[in-house]
Structure prediction request, 123 residues.
Amino acid sequence: QVQLVESGGGSVQAGGSLRLSCAASGSIFRIGVMGWYRQAPGKQRELVATQSSGDSTNYADFVKGRFTISSDNAKNTVYLQMNSLKPEDTAVYYCHADIVRRAGGYYLRDAYWGQGTLVTVAS
Prediction:
């Protein structure tokens, strides 16, 4: 099977920085798009940033210029560097990945989610 394990959440003052990590492990054949989503209390989950296997990136308007997504393909890991954090960035951040895995003699493509990591930004 495949697992996504996130780390790096925590509490920070407004204007501070945090770096989230998400490592994919398991019977991975190929990773397509990896990205980060977030869900604040009482709100729907929303896209934060994504990065394709070809390294093209996509950011939500509310994080452009403040957050940077990057990856280490050798480690099957994606990062989210978050700078100039605001109280409205407070949310549970989820890693998401589009992964093709080996299953017996087959290759199966699925979308996977991490367990989420809480980011709290105090004003």
Q: What stands out?
A: The CA atoms of residues 21 and 79 lie 5 Å apart.
